[in-house]
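Methods — Computational structure assignment.
A single polypeptide chain was analysed. Its primary sequence is given first, followed by the predicted tertiary structure written as structure tokens.
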Amino acid sequence: MNLAGVRPKSPTERLLAANAWVVYAFFYAPILVLIVFSFNANNNVGIWTEPSLRWYRDVLSNDAVLSAIKVSLIVAFVSTVVSTILGTMTALSLERFRYRGQRAFDGLVYLPIIIPDVTMAVMLLLFFAQGFQWLDAAIGWRPSFGIGTISLSHIAFNISFVAVVVRARLGQMDPGLEEAAADLYATRWQTFRRVTLPLIAPGVAGGALLALTLSLDDVVITSFVAGPGATTLPVYVFGLVRRGVTPLINAVSTLMLVASMLLVAISLGFQRSSRSRVTALGDDRE
């Protein structure tokens, strides 16, 4: 006898459920194997002998890895802070104001999300190379590729992702709240600081965490604009893979995977919090 409200699954539903499990296994089984073999004591990446934290100790004692982590954190911090500020301003300008050329600007904001990474990497490389030549000819100063160029490149594509996330939060916000603040003689700045910003703060934080994750994970664009002594952790891991897979790569990749998943989870939490807050405020006004 079936429980009340629960009907037996049809063959089609069973087939779709099985298909879902196969897809999940296809995507996540390699990740699980990577994590398991990061605790392998054997030097051979494909032969399991016994559990060990050897490779994680090697990561913490490897100067090249620590240097790459330091560069990654510096670039991620700078690019996240700047892109969050500029992306939030971009979202506000597109969602709350009307001006000439807005539609064209709206389309340009999505370009870094749409175009391939390789295309953007080549464009940035040419931009920096030509810009450095112009500075050298104009004032006799020729900058070099390094942390600065990596940070500017990450800012260039992170602004779009932050703007999209913050704009989505603004779209869920009731404009009547800002109008009510204006009716109470609040200035634009007071309205933004006391009404708009608190409501979109979880969305801004979610966009910032997304930008941080993308910056920490980027390989293609970073490899084009990096210079000597400015190697990020993903680029360093990519270089190790080209020389041969070792258990050290498994340990580094596992740490990167855990950090990325943690940041994405926090970002999703902020976005859900923002959605709940906007919904609750709308219910209170009703």
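Note: Residues 30 and 36 are 10 Å apart (CA to CA).
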